[in-house]
Structure to design on (154 residues):
């Protein structure tokens, strides 16, 4: 049984909830990010998240459902190292740099978080459901993306 099968939200929702939140048609990953997510899962770097089974399930579903990003990487695609400005329903805009690192750093959004796992692979002006540790669902929209320096030439 995979970790995805263990992900439970309050109210008993499981895989169908996670699958509903990740649409492959709307998400693409660059090869480097795909490998980074696989490393996070393999090294158990999500174990300190508030709800590791839910986060692991979301990351695994993102790996399964997403397609490969075009080459060169589109400048509006959220990749590790991108500076992302986003807004969550009912809140003001926020921003941070998306990070594959396992340790929180001020100004960074960890891919090993429900927010970071949702943002990676999205594009500017794209909306997506954002799972919360409590099982609540909000909407997140990517307002702007600044590519990391090594992707600027794209």
């Amino acid at each position: 049984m995979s970790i995805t099968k263990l992900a439970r939200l309050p109210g008993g929702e499981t895989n169908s909830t996670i699958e509903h939140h990740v649409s492959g048609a709307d998400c693409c990953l660059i090869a480097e990010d795909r490998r980074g997510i696989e490393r996070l899962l393999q090294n158990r770097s999500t174990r300190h998240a508030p709800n590791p089974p839910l986060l692991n399930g979301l990351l695994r579903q993102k790996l399964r459902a997403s397609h490969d990003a075009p080459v060169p990487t589109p400048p509006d695609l959220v990749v590790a190292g991108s500076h992302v400005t986003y807004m969550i329903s009912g809140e003001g805009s926020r921003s941070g740099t998306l990070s594959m690192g396992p340790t929180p750093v001020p100004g960074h959004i960890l891919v090993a978080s429900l927010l970071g796992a949702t943002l990676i692979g999205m594009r500017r002006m794209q909306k997506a459901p954002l799972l919360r540790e409590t099982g609540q669902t909000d909407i997140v929209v990517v307002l702007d993306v600044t590519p990391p320096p090594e992707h600027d030439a794209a």
Remarks:
- The CA atoms of residues 31 and 125 lie 23 Å apart.
